[in-house]
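Input chain follows. Return structure tokens only.
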Amino acid sequence: GFRIYATTIQQLGKLVEEGRYEAAGSRLRELREGAGAHPDSRVLRLLIGGRLSLKSETDNVDASLLDPAQTEDEFLRAELHFVRGLSRFHRGEFLLGAEDFGCAEPLYRRLGKADRELLSAYNAFIGRLNSDQFGDPESWDFKEGLDQLGELHRRAMACGDLWISGLVLRQRSYFFQELGRSRAAYEEAVR
């Protein structure tokens, strides 16, 4: 499932970025007509359509269709959680999105997809933060958040994922700034 999905997403994403919507639509029709070629072709079409919808910022994704239980393929289940999480974030349903990212994280870990695992972990953290699960910003336990981000940074550095590392350091710097620790915020920002 991964190779077909990844290649198709890249091809369709490029067409959308280039504004070649008719060509993207033709490619999607080809996929629909060849539905019997892959046992998870419906899931692949849902994921591709969801990704394209989110990429074009229209987000007309029906999150209920992105049910991970509809496939046995572990990668596709992870992707369904991931895309559903993104869709929920776009709708302001941060806690539900965080739950989906939290479900995707261990699936990606088992598949050895560290970049997706770490991004899922980061998104789950941000979703919980934005959902007010931490409570009123005045009463946030920044130390707990800093500890969680520190662990995520350690994991990102262990596998050389500088993008996630940068996202984590930016968030840690923000937390230090909120705590009135400007020097620590600066040191996190330039680390």
